[in-house]
């Protein structure tokens, strides 16, 4: 039999023995080195198959493989090296079993097949190779290059587990969440181990989060693999060997989901159906936020808040970083800086500011500190394998750390927010939850975790720790705030984290390169199931100049999470810190964010309800063109607005590629053809933006914060197209969970134009009625002179063309169809 050693090269049995002998000799000479077995065991021929409902068990006599039909398009593969599967448990997956229409097992001479309506899983008898085939085209989407394999872990028990798939010559890869290099992952190797990566660099790996989900695109078709394993994991996309895509982990089960496309969008939506979507955020959370390490004392916080109001720059939230606490003790206040936090928060709220505070996992070892005392008495802190507490130094000094993988601890921690909620804190920011420890970086491997009753060392719990912390925060706030939507932000996380909070990309740097990195990171997070993401606008460390800051504000206007943040040792970093012309440009873009609020909010709904990503990179818009697999600058926000951030110092124009269809230049209203590149204006007042022809973009009046004004009429910006386009417009309370009971208004617009007319149809769903009565229309690009407008068959007498040549009129918001006809 042939074996494959660590480096993936094939070796014969006797060579293998030779290596073991050599290692043993080395070990005897130097007993300090750990003897690590190098023998990988591979599945051999299939000898048996058994079926139980939607699960199929294949065996080679010893090892077992379970293939489970999750839905018509998703199947799950699990490996048990000696036939015993681990108990079913996942922090990431909400529903393993979805709706399947039919499936069946068939046996052939050389293989077994399990088919649904859409896909077929093929298990080759002779060598246990598993592949997935699309029924319609008979195309092999993903196939084993070697049988699944494993290696015993003599130190901790369990196995190192490996899967190796074929990497096709023209195949490209996307996803994996938190990576800082090119969007396309092909030719690179990655590792997942949540890491506090202060001032991380281009392509530095690993970073803060673990999302072991990737998508592959070849032959114009896409599929995804979700390797649900919380141990340190690795991915190799044709780097080690151009013909192989591999993923493996330092422990746990080899368990992965094959997720079918054929469109990338379908893969991502199906991945979200497994791991969940982001709940609707409170509307203020998608406004502009101002943060710094740290604004203190109280007078400084107020000066900043008032600074926004006096300059008429919209802002919804101000953040308190660690210095608001008493000696960095979580859930306490430094009374010298903040003598009466309740009053301050109230005063901030009077001028439209929400207060968000930071909470870290490290709890100061201090017997006079109630949080420490409660945690200690109840045995809530993590312990080492020899039973001593896990201790490490963080901001407060010597600390112990709650075991957030214990449901009782999560419940306790969630309740600790009571006082903060009572005094009016609106959101919580969880930092340092990789977990980060000064000096050592993180916990040692032997720390024990409850792991929701399934037990594990830190090797297994490390990558999940941050997500369980923000989960506890989110659930706690949700209870304390009754029916109000919590706002939480986390630095670390794992697949499924989107159910509990939004994320920022961590400690970036004020450089042009980091603007580019951030642009890619947000897009990548978006196609990895974590769409509510943003960068520290301006860069956390280092000093941006006015130009860089303004370019970052422009890009940030189209980051799902829009927050400026900076380290304490840098110069002031508010939108007005750089003088003119920057202040005015920054104001104009932040205002644009608020004007587009109803559109942005609707895109969040499309994500929450239907699983669409918020940012969509070019490859997702046009995966059939291989050149798009390498485009990573431009993306759409939702499916209507194309965003082309300016990433170069001194740029006054740039080349943009527009996908299929027709697009209006947002600034000039010029109509441009898609499927080609254009050279467009991009001086400092402009970041190129394009609107898909046929779109309806709802707009609110500029507000200084969400809810400042009653919306009296909604402006509908409609862009003529000579084809049909659908648009969404979602509204609801903006801060409650009533949408779960259908208390919302979901409008669909269908716009269809021809040479002489434009038809706009509206359907309305849901049980919520907005307060305003009127829509105003701003119709761009009509190719004819308007003769007549009818609203639900009634002729409208008042309409006019404005200075830009746009058609303007008003109607009742409940119209069903509007016909504009011309000559
Ligand atoms: O060790 O709380 O990424 O956003 O301002 C640094 C202080 C701790 C790291 C976070 C950053 C935050 C800072 N924190």
Automatic annotation (TrEMBL):
<keyword id="KW-0378">Hydrolase</keyword>
<keyword id="KW-0326">Glycosidase</keyword>
<dbReference type="InterPro" id="IPR017853">
    <property type="entry name" value="GH"/>
</dbReference>
<dbReference type="GO" id="GO:0030246">
    <property type="term" value="F:carbohydrate binding"/>
</dbReference>
<dbReference type="InterPro" id="IPR011013">
    <property type="entry name" value="Gal_mutarotase_sf_dom"/>
</dbReference>
<comment type="similarity">
    <text>Belongs to the glycosyl hydrolase 31 family.</text>
</comment>
<dbReference type="Pfam" id="PF21365">
    <property type="entry name" value="Glyco_hydro_31_3rd"/>
</dbReference>
<dbReference type="Pfam" id="PF01055">
    <property type="entry name" value="Glyco_hydro_31_2nd"/>
</dbReference>
<dbReference type="GO" id="GO:0004553">
    <property type="term" value="F:hydrolase activity, hydrolyzing O-glycosyl compounds"/>
</dbReference>
<dbReference type="InterPro" id="IPR033403">
    <property type="entry name" value="DUF5110"/>
</dbReference>
<feature type="domain" description="Glycoside hydrolase family 31 N-terminal">
    <location>
        <begin position="65"/>
        <end position="236"/>
    </location>
</feature>
<feature type="domain" description="Glycosyl hydrolase family 31 C-terminal">
    <location>
        <begin position="611"/>
        <end position="697"/>
    </location>
</feature>
<dbReference type="InterPro" id="IPR030458">
    <property type="entry name" value="Glyco_hydro_31_AS"/>
</dbReference>
<feature type="domain" description="Glycoside hydrolase family 31 TIM barrel">
    <location>
        <begin position="279"/>
        <end position="602"/>
    </location>
</feature>
<dbReference type="InterPro" id="IPR000322">
    <property type="entry name" value="Glyco_hydro_31_TIM"/>
</dbReference>
<dbReference type="InterPro" id="IPR025887">
    <property type="entry name" value="Glyco_hydro_31_N_dom"/>
</dbReference>
<dbReference type="Pfam" id="PF13802">
    <property type="entry name" value="Gal_mutarotas_2"/>
</dbReference>
<dbReference type="InterPro" id="IPR048395">
    <property type="entry name" value="Glyco_hydro_31_C"/>
</dbReference>
<dbReference type="Pfam" id="PF17137">
    <property type="entry name" value="DUF5110"/>
</dbReference>
<dbReference type="InterPro" id="IPR013780">
    <property type="entry name" value="Glyco_hydro_b"/>
</dbReference>
<dbReference type="GO" id="GO:0005975">
    <property type="term" value="P:carbohydrate metabolic process"/>
</dbReference>
<feature type="domain" description="DUF5110">
    <location>
        <begin position="716"/>
        <end position="779"/>
    </location>
</feature>
<protein>
    <submittedName>
        <fullName>Alpha-glucosidase</fullName>
    </submittedName>
</protein>
